[in-house]
């Protein structure tokens, strides 16, 4: 059995499978294999471009009797182009259709960034550029108040399309603002967090509001080297304090870093397509890091953010749009 964290009174598996950057051709089998191994938490998003294939993997697993739909915790995310109130439900319904389910356990605002609407028939997922064929393609900002988007998210929960709603990539100021106007409070804050970006103040603020936290990219640079957003020598797995803990506990460095994440009471959603690593990433609950090891790993913090729109939007999408200062 996997350990869980409490999300608005429900138990969410503390380790999930992150589905970002899994090739479409492999996705269905990876999802089914993960469920067979024991995963019950799947972290998806419209922008990942593989929700149809995720749905096929879920269907394959359910048909094989590996679990029931109620055993699964399925998260997805509202993309930036659907922030206007009139588009939120349609975007959610599209995700439900693609995943082949009639409700989500958790639906998140993917970024506090609102872009001009792109119709499903024009391009799906629409990604970041408004018109990729333009002479100088760029993002087109549509200044939608986040409060408008949140009210539409609340309506999804009231209709039973989603059981919980939350946010991704919010900073503490946006979180405080949201809590001032939300009728239904967010159940989850999903943020980049790993030993190089511990985000202790933000995680503490979320806890003060009884908001659970999921850490994406919990292994840090490994998700970003292939995208030229990180250097190979930035791997936290090669740090001496991580290696020392791995040797003491006879575990892999990756297991040590993931255990550090769950021991901080955050969920983690590592991505892998390797069956051995799928098993390894789930095997975090029969050992424990000492207080000194936890402190030493936290001491690696550099405030190093790999997934930063203020950097990648400028370089990749010809648009400067920072959301972190």
Task: Indicate the topology.
Elements: E1 4-7, E2 10-13, E3 17-18, H1 24-37, E4 41-43, H2 51-63, E5 73-78, H3 85-99, E6 106-109, H4 146-159, E7 165-168, H5 172-181, E8 188-192, H6 200-208, E9 212-216, H7 240-249, H8 253-263, E10 267-268, H9 275-282, H10 291-298, H11 309-317
Parallel strand pairs: 3-4, 4-5, 5-6, 6-7, 7-8, 8-9, 9-10
Antiparallel strand pairs: 1-2
Helix pairs in contact: 1-2, 2-3, 3-4, 7-8
Describe the structure.
With 325 residues, this protein is an alpha/beta fold. It has a single domain (13-317), classed as NADP-dependent oxidoreductase domain (TIM Barrel), CATH 3.20.20. 37% of the residues lie in helices and 12% in strands. Strands 3-4-5-6-7-8-9-10 form an 8-stranded parallel beta sheet. Strands 1-2 form a two-stranded antiparallel ribbon. Strand 7, helix 5 (172-181) and strand 8 (188-192) form a beta-alpha-beta unit. Helix 1 packs parallel to helix 2 (51-63) and helix 7 (240-249) packs across helix 8 (253-263). The radius of gyration is 19 Å and the shape is globular. The mean pLDDT is 96.
Can you count the beta strands? 10
Alpha carbon gyration radius: 19 Å
What's the CATH H-level homologous superfamily? NADP-dependent oxidoreductase domain
Mean pLDDT over the residues: 96
Per DSSP, the total helix count is 11
Instruction: Report the sheet with the most strands, covering strand number, pairing sense and barrel closure.
Output: 8 strands, parallel
Give the SSE string. Answer: EEEHEHEHEHEHEHEHHEHHH
Low-confidence stretches: none
Query: For the largest beta sheet, what order do the strands appear in spatially?
Result: 3-4-5-6-7-8-9-10
What fold name stands as the CATH topology? TIM Barrel
Structural class category: alpha/beta
Tell me the CATH architecture: Alpha-Beta Barrel
- What percentage of the residues does DSSP assign to strands (E)? 5-15%
Number of domains: 1
Into which percent range does the helicity of residues fall?
A: 25-40%
Shape: globular
CATH class descriptor = Alpha Beta
């Amino acid at each position: 059995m996997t350990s869980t964290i409490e999300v608005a009174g429900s138990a969410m598996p503390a380790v999930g499978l992150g589905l970002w950057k899994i090739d479409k051709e492999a996705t269905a089998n990876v999802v089914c294999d993960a469920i067979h191994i024991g995963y019950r938490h799947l972290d998806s998003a419209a922008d990942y471009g593989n929700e149809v294939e995720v749905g096929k993997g879920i269907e394959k697993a359910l048909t094989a009797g590996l679990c029931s739909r109620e055993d699964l915790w399925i998260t997805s995310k509202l993309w930036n182009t659907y922030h206007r109130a009139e588009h939120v439900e349609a975007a959610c319904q599209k995700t439900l259709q693609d995943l082949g389910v009639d409700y989500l356990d958790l639906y998140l605002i993917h970024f506090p960034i609102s872009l001009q609407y792109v119709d499903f028939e024009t391009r799906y997922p629409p990604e970041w550029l408004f018109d990729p064929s333009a002479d100088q393609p760029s993002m087109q900002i549509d200044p939608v108040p986040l409060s408008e988007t949140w009210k539409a998210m609340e309506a999804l929960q009231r209709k039973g399309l989603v059981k919980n709603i939350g946010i991704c990539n919010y900073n503490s100021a946006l979180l405080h603002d949201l809590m001032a106007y939300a009728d239904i409070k967010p159940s989850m804050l999903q943020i980049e967090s790993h030993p190089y970006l511990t985000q202790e103040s933000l995680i503490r603020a979320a806890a003060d509001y009884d908001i659970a936290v999921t850490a994406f990219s919990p292994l840090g640079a490994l998700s970003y080297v292939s995208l030229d957003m990180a250097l190979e020598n930035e791997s936290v797995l090669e740090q001496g304090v991580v290696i020392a803990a791995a040797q003491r506990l006879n575990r892999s460095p990756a297991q040590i870093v993931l255990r550090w994440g769950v021991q901080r009471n955050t969920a983690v959603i590592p991505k892998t397509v390797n069956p051995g690593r799928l098993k390894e990433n789930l095997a975090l609950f029969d050992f424990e890091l000492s207080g000194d090891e936890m402190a030493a790993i936290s001491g690696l913090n550099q405030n190093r953010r790999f997934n930063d729109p203020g950097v990648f939007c400028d370089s990749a999408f010809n648009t400067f749009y920072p959301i972190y200062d």
